[in-house]
Amino acid sequence: MKALILAGGFGTRLRPLSCTRPKTLFPIVNKPLLQWTFERLAKNDVTDAILAVNHQTEFLLKQYRIPRCGVRITYSRDPPGKPLGTGGPVKKAEKLLDHDFPFLVLNGDIFADVNYKEIVKIDKKKKAVATIALHRVEDPTRYGVAELDENNRIRRFVEKPPSETAPSNFINAGVYVLHPEIFKYIPENRAVSLEREVFPTLAEDGKLYGHMFDGLWSDIGEPEDYLEINKTLLNPFDTSQKFEERKKVEVKNPVAFDKEVSIGEKSVIGPYTILGRHVIVGKNVHIRDSVIFQNTSIGDSSSINGAVIGEGANIGKEVKIGKGCIVGDHVKIKDGMALAKKVSICPAKEISESVLTPENII
Ligand code: GDD
Ligand code: MG
Question: Given a cut of 60, is residue 240 above it in pLDDT?
């Protein structure tokens, strides 16, 4: 079975970290999101994946050299400067996809613990052109919403409905089984939205089905969601984290440290803290509920609580970083600075004044 992974969008709500990497490359417990997806594909016997990208994402993805877990990868590019939306890339990859069997299409920017084999099995029993994995959420307004009949046929599909009009709490989880007939529903050579154009038509034709699943699911679109999925996935690791310098350092599980992490004495790390490869933490540093990307250094006596720090950042001594702050890649923060709450700092900025109100520093 083949899969097409939609990976050419821009994660605007995760700025400033998404200025320098697509969402598929955000580390989740020190592994790029795309690697989690490859692993899940391999586990479900999917042998070939087509990455629907633009030139920029292709370049960045190739640089990262993510382990492919035995899955063969082909790139399918949107035309330069002409993003094809969520449907256009499916049409564009028509020649690369199967014409006799259904195939999978995945939103590349979500973490979805879906059993692909199961959804394929369910799909086989229906006369569907598309079967969508559905997940229940409290607030469906940020998503595509499905109204189901008693046979799990989707009567109506509405993308991002205003709050009072959402037909249900069952949302499109961004995992589809599509049949080759789908190609007839997608116009060629232009941007097409599966969610706004194709799914509503399929629903009218009675060819759209849903499959509810209740595994772990997260759209890492907002910083809080990003921190939350990292936190959730840390749970099972619990006390297994090894750290050779542990005696001098207080580690409050769960935490995850990648290779070559160094932590100075009297530092208190955790709970819910993820340190990327080659992160250097000084002495007497306190970090909790935070994700620190690779190659970042944090000076003595600093504290970080509930923040995401990009890669290659240089945080000085006695710096305080509060809840909801997002620090871009290669930012330099001078000694003694404080970032109160919800402060975002664009990549490579130098901070030499404290920021005490929620603000975007561009
Ligand atoms: N190649 C390519 N070209 N990929 C694209 C393009 C494009 O022009 N636009 C978006 N994508 C990719 C994104 O990278 C992402 O992986 C996926 O398509 C979905 O696009 P988003 O822009 O992230 O959509 P969304 O998050 O607002 O909504 C979608 O996901 C929700 C679940 O997270 C919809 O599918 C909703 O119905 C769904 O509920
Ligand atoms: Mg999205």
Answer: no
Length of the chain: 362
Q: Pick the catalytic residue: 23, 62, 91, 160?
A: 160
Q: For residue 140, report the distance from its CA to the centre of ligand 2, in Å.
A: 13
Q: Look at 321 and 245; give whichever has higher pLDDT.
A: 321
Does ligand 1 come within 6 angstroms of the Cβ of 110? yes
Q: What is the CA radius of gyration of the chain?
A: 22
The confidence score (pLDDT) of residue 244 equals: 55
Ligand with smallest separation from the Cα of 6:
1
Identify the weakest region by mean pLDDT among 9-23, 64-78, 271-285.
Answer: 9-23
What is the CA(59)–ligand 1 centre distance, in A? 19
Using one digit for the tens of pLDDT, what is the confidence trace for 318-342?
999 999 999 999 999 999 999 999 9
240/325 same-domain check: yes
CA triple 351-355-361, angle to 5 deg = 60
* Domain of residue 30, CATH code: 3.90.550.10
Instruction: Report if residue 230 sits inside a domain.
Output: no
Using CA positions, which residue lies closest to atom 19 of ligand 1?
Answer: 107
Answer whether residue 192 is part of any domain.
yes
Structure confidence at residue 285 (pLDDT): 98
Q: Measured in angstroms, how far is the CA atom of residue 95 from the centroid of ligand 1?
A: 22
Q: How many helices (H) and strands (E) does the chain have?
A: 6, 32
76 is in which domain, residue-wise? 2-222
The CB of 202 under 6 Å from ligand 1? The reply is: no
Q: Whose CA is nearest to atom 18 of ligand 1?
A: 6
Sheet holding 359-361, edge to edge: 255-257, 273-275, 290-292, 308-309, 326-327, 343-345, 359-361
Percent of the chain past pLDDT 70, that is, above it, reads 96
Say how far apart CA 352 and CA 231 lie, in whole Å.
Answer: 31
Nearest CA to ligand 1 atom 11: 9
pTM greater than 0.85: yes
Mean pLDDT value across the chain? 93
Q: Is 164 a residue whose pLDDT tops 70?
A: yes
| The ligand 1 atom nearest the CA atom of 23 | 14
62 assigned to active site: no
Tell me which DSSP letter residue 219 carries. E
Residues 208 and 305 in one domain: no
